[in-house]
Amino acid sequence: MTTHSLLIYNGFELKKPINSILHVDTNYNSFDEDYQKFLDEIDLNVIKKDLKIPDTDRVIFNGGWYRNFYYLNEKNVLCHSRIYIRKLNWTTPDGKNHYISLWPDFVIKYNPLSADLIEYIATNMRKGEDIFFDYHIKDPERLIECEDLIHNFCLKVELACHIHKFTVFLNADYTKKYNHPLKVKFDRGFLDDCRYPGIYLLQKTGQTYRGSSGMVLSFLNRKLKFLR
Fold it and tell me: What's the rounded Cα separation, in Å, for the pair 179 and 171?
């Protein structure tokens, strides 16, 4: 289990380990090329602005690590890539070093499934359905041995929805901004029978909150920092 400490710098509180979640435009049919473009075009000034790091502080690239990543192409075929998570070294004027991990918004920490894959499963699967054989996902190359692995990764996010009450936060934040609560539309029949009701409700709430139906969990990952 990851332990967290708090860094207070320049009057700004930052939880450690430090993570910066970046929006990435990608087409899953050309994922490897798009992801490499993202890595090549990371702007350190954007990171510093996001984390409120003063211009006087030094921020440089500091390696990273590879991890497995699974996603769907537009034909609902399961694909796999090894993606690189970059790290930065942030040095403050007193000589102290802090390390920052850079995460694309469609990557959830500790989870090898894309946020968009999890969103697709949660908004389409009912209890008792098979992830593979009910035509939700095609895995002709047998990249994953059994659906229990996919279920366990989805369950991590489902449990986080119940523990952290993300939908309550979104409702409260929306009400504070616009002085009236969210009016979330969802399929009650599907909710009662869906496999991951917490994620489904979060997706529908996020869809209304954002005003857009595409890549909702990726958007919410930037805002809510799932499991970080």
Answer: 11
